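B., you asked whether I could sanity-check this one before it goes into the benchmark set. Here's the sequence:
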Amino acid sequence: MSSGIAQRSTGTRVLYAALSVLLLQVAVENTAVASEEPTRGVCGTTVGVPSAPEGAQVVDPGTDLTDKTRFSPPGTTFWLSPGEHHLSPDQFGQVMPKDGNVYLGAPGAVLNGRGINRAAFTTSAKDVVIRGLTIRGFVAERDQGVVNHDSGERWTIEGNVIEDNDGAGMMTGSGQRVIGNCLRNNGQYGINAYRFGGGLADLVIEGNEISGNNTGDWETKIPGCGCSGGAKFWAVNGADITGNWVHHNHGVGLWADTNNNDFLIQDNLIEDNASEGLFYEISYNLELIGNTFNRNALVQGRNRAAKGDNFPVAAVYLSESGGEPRLPARTSRIDIRGNMFSDNWSGITLWENADRFCNSPANTSTLSCTALVSPTSSCSDPGIATEPLYGDCRWKTQRVSVHENTFEFDSSMEGCLGMCGRMAVLSNYGTFPAWSPYRGAVISEAITFRQENRWYDNQYYGPWTFVAHDTSRRLTAAQWQAAPYLQDTCSGFGETVTC
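And here's what the prediction gave me:
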């Protein structure tokens, strides 16, 4: 390890140690719960609301919470006393909240699906609150969730432990608040932000621990399904993802897939995920600010390197995603700034598949078109060869700014084989279908030179290399900074800043 890496790593360890102390302090504070506030759900701490609020219905173990809900008016508060609570012993045993219902768990209150019930809380009721419960043992089917199964609007899910379930720990509805929960070891996702037909908006995901999810290893069961992760977001317009600890998920940490827009991902600790820490796919307008990425994509990177696959697997992967001023958002770019990247397989990869566009047979999101074109069928020969369809029928990796970040890695990491420690902006050679106007090097040239993708004012430690245009074109730092690429103006390499 170079002296520059060692110096920077020491600073990182101090920062990480301070963060660990802070998390420990939060955990200790959370074990002593004031009656007026729920526990913040950090895994390994005690969660629960210690006493029933005035007017709440007390639900003891053995009481049928489903019937209690059915025969109570909207807006009723239920307090589940300590012990293990069960629903009816059939797969469709479930609680069906009414608008404004509140479900509180005492410390030690567990709602257990016993491997029988598919979902815990269903229906599209609005303004439901679930707080202080441990929810485990439910067997949701693939792509379905245990809590808020039907994507009700404006739910608050706060200070719970949602663990060891099949499917997703929870679904989301517009206006949902997911705050201070432990979401761990669920079979597919911790969070599946999806609603049939789309239309999700205004999500807040704050202060959660999201870990160990995708225990079902869905990407192996269904290769290329894109159906796993710590948290997955589909067609969400507006999301604040702040202050979470996203770690040790068996796949991607955070994955935004298909026409998401206006995301703020800030002040998260994202580490030790088997695949990318963040995968932002065919989506728009993102601020990625002040996060720490440690040791992400090592499993995926080693596996691909061992097979001789030279694709630049990275901690942050932008796939056909970029800034779009025509979509209302807090930014018209993808702005990646002020983040710390330490010992990930690689740093940031900007990719655009020349064959993946709206109405192309090569588009794996077969039912989706870009947010700029309707209907899908309009993206066809001959109209697609001229503007505006020529530009609007493809998801563009464009208007990406990567600045004021720190990147460090140790090139002696296991399985590197010269394929780690890379930064990339690239595409493939377009070949398909025959009527595509994007065949050849059209998209490689565009993403590399004409779509406003810029690195600048960054700091690097370690022997970083750079990939531009396509996977065959590997560059030194000096080549990356020189014409025709002119990247990383005023960036530092080791102790040397070139400006």
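One thing to flag: The domain at 57-497 is CATH 2.160.20 (Pectate Lyase C-like). Otherwise nothing jumped out at me.
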